[in-house]
Specification:
heterodimer; A: alpha/beta; 3 domains; eight-stranded mixed beta sheet; seven-stranded mixed beta sheet; B: alpha/beta; 6 helices; globular; binds flavin-adenine dinucleotide
Chain lengths: 430, 256
């Protein structure tokens, strides 16, 4: 193989890119990965939790070796209003069982670890370089262009994230529309492991995932999240872009208010802010998947729109891994046949269809729409839950009402029919 | 023409943290090339590009300086090869010992016409190593150089002094320390980074380099960050006339 020619060039050193590169190099292909950040993960933001099932298949037992933060064994969901917070909590050893376990992660370290795995497998890592364009000849993608340099490959894999300019340049997708993306802002706040164990009632090495609907995103589609890491807390707010325009607050202000909410503030006390970041989240789900296969090119991860935004929780990292695995399988097959045409690479689509990636995206396909059509989830139900709890627990000396009657008062305010309708629509979209 | 460029490996400045007890923590700081030595490597590379020749990067320090990312970084900036003494015996050595260790490396390389150093290091900025290295090698040594031109067997250098520009001619081989004004270090290109992966790096222990009896003369008792002033946490809100006035009054009071 000449110096300037590879079997595969991968653009983007996030989870999707590093895993694709790793899988190809492991099978002996000549692979180069180009990442614009100074190291893999340097530009990447995630809320914080990776479901292990997909990576476990590729690197069995990875969680023992990888720099994961805490194993999530406690799930909390809250409906939050300005002054109240109603929380449902679930803790179970089943959450931590192999195969269904999940971990909080910090991408700065996690992606670097994945990149080192890829490098050990033989991937040529080129960091600090942005790919500006693709070499395209007669509709076939033949490699990448960065500055003055051009390098060629049989196949180029775009793993360049949610705002894939390269896929746009190929005409595979248009510019992102406001209803297709959400924006997230996040802080990492340092606290000692002991303080975190105590405040979140966690055993050593175990942690909490906590999602919030309601006031964190100013009553619009979105929500707040909090994940415990080893010695820090990741917390942030996600809001759909189209909703953000209508909100009366900016996103950074939402995060500030979330942090100073009476239920959150004591949890952060004494903590030191280590990192502040903002990032886009693809959120159109199944309906947003653009063209992902062409002559000599495949698109994976966020760049392909493989992400589900459930309003308060985002799931994209396991899809990044899953799509990387499908792409690697397709490229290995194409390499054997030495046929990198779009026609042959269609097997990528078949692998995706058979995998959890497409199955899950399809399953949740109406969910983003449901959220947008059902503002009550964000601006109605949190208030209702808080009102019911207030009546239950706030003792004023006034004569109490029978519980059923009291509850029904609040339910009626919301409209019985509305609740039934939302419930029905919600269940159907799942 | 063989040009040796010396570089120091230091902890990444922006990742050094101060602990509540004012201890300095390097825990999260990866190893990086001392910023001024980027100018040094660039100067060597530009001279080789203009005059033909070969650039060699050399460094001495503790075992941790032998870092694959860091070596690739150096090699993507022009040098064809790296020679290092990476040995924990060299932790906490002073500038004279550093110059001695660099001398050992240079003597092992033997064939060189010019040695370049950065003016000082990003961590301690003692500005000693270049001049001391020249003295140890019995070569002309000159510092604060902001421009180098080569002409047969000699270098014409410019030094920017307080009120004038001094131009000197020195015979080669020589040791020259360059300031950060000399150039703007390049951002390596994709192909340069790729090529760096294929270049060679030779790592020696202190024994290998013939400086096995060198031991640190410096012991660090304590390094503390300066005491931080307590913030007054006095926040003036709004942009009304009064708010601005109160803001100014407060500042004036403190300045009194
Ligand atoms: C606030 C927030 C919370 C989230 N929470 C979760 C969660 O809890 N769980 C979960 O599973 N998912 C979560 N997600 C989604 C998840 O982070 C993404 O789906 C995942 O990061 C996608 O990985 P990727 O490799 O496809 O893309 P990215 O991680 O975005 O990686 C793309 C890479 O490409 C590089 N790049 C881009 N353009 C170029 C170019 N031209 N040249 C070279 N390099 C380039 C970038 O620097 C980057 O490193 C969250 C996302 C956000 C923003």
């Amino acid at each position: 193989m000449s110096d300037d020619r590879f079997d595969a060039i991968i653009v983007g050193g996030g989870i999707a890119g590093t895993v694709t590169a790793y899988l190809l190099a492991k099978e002996g292909l000549e692979v180069m990965l180009v990442e614009r950040g100074n190291y893999a993960g340097s530009k990447n933001v995630t809320g914080g939790r990776i479901y292990s099932h997909s990576l476990e298949k590729i690197m069995p037992g990875f969680a023992q070796e990888a720099p994961v933060e805490r194993k999530i064994t406690r799930e909390k969901i809250s409906l939050m209003t300005e002054e109240s917070n109603v929380t449902v909590e679930f803790s179970s050893t089943r959450l931590g069982e192999q195969g269904s376990d999940s971990y909080s992660v910090l991408r700065g370290v996690f992606d670097q670890w994945l990149a080192s795995k890829a490098e050990d497998a033989g991937v040529q890592m080129v960091t600090g370089i942005r790919v500006d364009d693709l070499i395209v000849r007669e509709g076939k993608v033949c490699g990448v262009i960065a500055g003055e340099d051009e390098l060629e490959a049989n196949v180029t894999i775009l793993a360049d994230g949610v705002n894939s300019l390269l896929a746009q340049k190929l005409g595979y997708r248009g510019e992102l529309a406001p209803h297709q993306v959400a924006v997230g802002v996040k802080e990492i706040i340092e606290l000692s492991a002991e303080v975190i164990d105590n405040r979140f009632n966690c055993r050593e090495g175990e942690g909490t995932s906590w999602l919030f609907a309601g006031i964190p995103s100013a009553g619009k589609v979105g929500g707040g999240f909090l994940y415990t890491n080893k010695t820090s807390i990741s917390l942030g707010v996600v809001s759909t872009l189209s909703e953000l325009i209508k909100a009366n607050k900016t996103l950074p202000q939402m995060l500030e208010d979330f942090k100073s909410h009476p239920s959150i503030e004591p949890l952060l006390k004494g903590g030191k802010m280590m990192e502040y970041s903002g990032h886009l989240v693809p959120e159109g789900g199944f309906h947003m998947v653009p063209k992902i296969i062409g002559d000599g090119v495949l698109v994976v991860g966020d760049a392909a729109g493989f992400c589900i935004n459930l309003g308060y929780a985002v799931r994209g990292m396991d899809f990044a891994v899953g799509s990387a695995e499908c792409a690697a399988k397709a490229v290995l097959k194409a390499n054997k046949a030495q046929d990198f045409s779009a026609g042959f690479l269609q097997c990528y689509q078949s692998f995706l269809d058979e995998s959890f990636v497409m199955k899950d995206l399809k399953h949740y396909r109406n969910f983003p729409h449901f959220l947008e059509e059902t503002p009550r989830i964000f601006n109605g139900y949190p208030g209702m839950a808080a009102d019911i709890m207030t009546d239950l627990f706030v003792v004023t000396g006034n004569p109490p009402q029978p519980m059923m009657k009291m509850m029904m008062k609040h339910v009626k305010n919301m409209g019985m029919l509305n609740i039934a309708k939302d419930g029905w629509k919600g269940v159907r979209s799942l | 023409m063989n040009i040796i460029t010396c570089f120091k490996v230091v902890p990444e400045e922006q990742d050094i943290t101060v602990k509540p007890n004012r201890d300095i923590s390097f825990e999260k700081a990866p190893m990086t090339i001392s910023a001024y030595d980027l100018n040094c490597i660039e100067a060597g590379t530009q001279l080789a590009e203009a005059n033909g020749g070969n650039v060699i990067g050399i460094s001495v320090g503790a075992k941790k300086i032998d870092d694959s990312k860091l070596k690739k970084n150096v090699l993507s900036r022009g040098p064809e090869s790296i020679f290092m003494v990476a040995d924990d015996k060299l932790e906490n050595i002073d500038t004279y010992q550093t110059a001695n260790a660099l001398k050992a490396v240079a003597e092992k390389i033997k064939d060189y016409d010019l040695i370049l150093c950065g003016e000082g290091s990003a961590d301690l900025y003692a500005q000693q190593v270049g001049p001391q290295l020249g003295q140890l090698l019995s070569l002309p040594a000159i510092n604060s150089v902001s421009k180098i031109t080569l002409a047969d067997g000699k270098a014409i250098v410019e030094r920017t002094l307080e009120n004038e520009l001094e131009t000197l001619e020195i015979s080669l081989p020589a040791v020259i320390s360059v300031t950060s004004d000399i150039n703007l270090p390049r951002i390596p290109s994709m192909k340069q980074i790729l090529a760096a992966g294929k270049k060679s790096a030779t790592i020696w222990s202190a024994e290998d380099a013939g400086i096995g009896n060198l031991s640190a003369t410096l012991g660090v008792i304590e390094t503390k960050a300066p005491e931080q002033m307590d913030r007054k946490k006095d926040i003036v809100q709004g942009d009304s006339e009064e708010a601005i006035k109160s803001f100014i009054t407060k500042i004036q009071e403190v300045l009194k």
